[in-house]
Amino acid sequence: MIAGNYNRISRFALKAGLASCGLTVLKLVAFRPLPPPLSAAPRRSASRLNGASRNSTGRRRTMAGETIPNTRIPILRSVPSLRSWRRPYMVNQRIVGLVPTMGALHKGHISLIRQAARECHEVVISIYVNPAQFGIKEDLASYPVTFDSDVAELARLDRELVDDGGNLGHISAVFAPTTADMYPSGFPGQEVDSTGSFVTITPVSNILEGASRPTFFRGVATVCMKLFNAVQPDRAYFGQKDVQQAVVIRKMERDFLLPTEIVIGPTMREQDGLALSSRNVYLGTRRRAVATVLSSALQAAEKAYASGKTATSAILGAANQVASRELQDQLALKPKERALFEVDYLALSDPETMEEVEAADPSKGAILTGAIRMLQVQDPQEGEDLGHSGGPLVRLIDNIILQPR
Q1: Do residues 343 and 370 touch, judged by C-beta distance below 8 A?
Q2: Which of 40-49, 232-241, 248-257, 300-309 has the least mean pLDDT?
Q3: Helix (H/G/I), strand (E/B), else coil: 235
Q4: What is the pTM (predicted TM-score) of this model?
Q5: What is the mean pLDDT of residues 278-301?
Q6: Is 113 helix (H, G, I), strand (E, B) or coil?
Q7: Which InterPro entries would you find in this protein's record (predicted)?
Q8: Catalytic site includes residue 388
Q9: Which residue in 109, 121, 170, 388 is the catalytic one?
């Protein structure tokens, strides 16, 4: 987030010439030797469960510590316990993959875990809601925390991965640290002018998403650096939906000479085109029906480019028309029926820098990005599904990579 079997990026992204912005897979020289060719992932022995006991949550505690119920997958709560777990795999030259998450797992996360299991012997899932990537007025307090259902889904998925002979590995550990573990000197705060130990990747962190959320990429880069240092993964897996985040992490990997290969998986979508996101649970029925306006707008812009248009005004004009038409349709409805939204931005960016451009370069393509704010519903009705936590304002992002032509 490699030539041969390690390249999981789509061909159109490769053709887009995205090497320097981080959307193609780089070929890195690992600091740790690679293992021999593919081998079957070891199955966990049921006999190793002897002597296990359950805590109040139903999760097992063994001599090795807490585990997911009915599995031997350890839940590692501290950096020392993680490093103790990690050490033998360095000696045995096992490929370790990391899938960083904030929980509230969905099909996008599952897709990344499946990809990691195909390519790595041991897969670590981190579940940590990182406060540093939330602004002071953002949804940290209401962010969905679904740890028990998340680990239950991981247990189910792991059984499937182990039974599938086509995988190199399986889910080997869950890393679920506290903020005290991740910020041992104390959490420095969410304000823009907070002082503390941060990783900042500029100028890419200051534009588009970074302009709307000035502390977001600082928080993302900082927590990813911490996770990379703690887990020491050979590979780390991220989704293309957060395309600017992928660019930031790849630049961090390159600029700080990190021995971790960054792999980007494709955006996963609902059948109607909505990009999967943990924040979709906030939408509720009314807003969910309108939330596809962002993907529809970007698709209209993509069609404009495919038809031969290259000027940003023409390409984004098609997207703006879709958004404007949908907003007018909603305003024509009664307050108890409508779902209103605001367009944060629609942008056409250079694939190497994420800087906005006046025209797409057909020789290398471009990146379409957008963000909208789904406003709280007006005149909510008794019994109406407003979404998680009462349906607060929801900010949705999406992107489409335009192929060279």
Answers
A1: yes
A2: 40-49
A3: strand
A4: 0.84
A5: 98
A6: helix
A7: Cyt_trans-like (IPR004821), Pantoate_ligase (IPR003721), Pantoate_ligase_C (IPR042176), Rossmann-like_a/b/a_fold (IPR014729)
A8: no
A9: 109
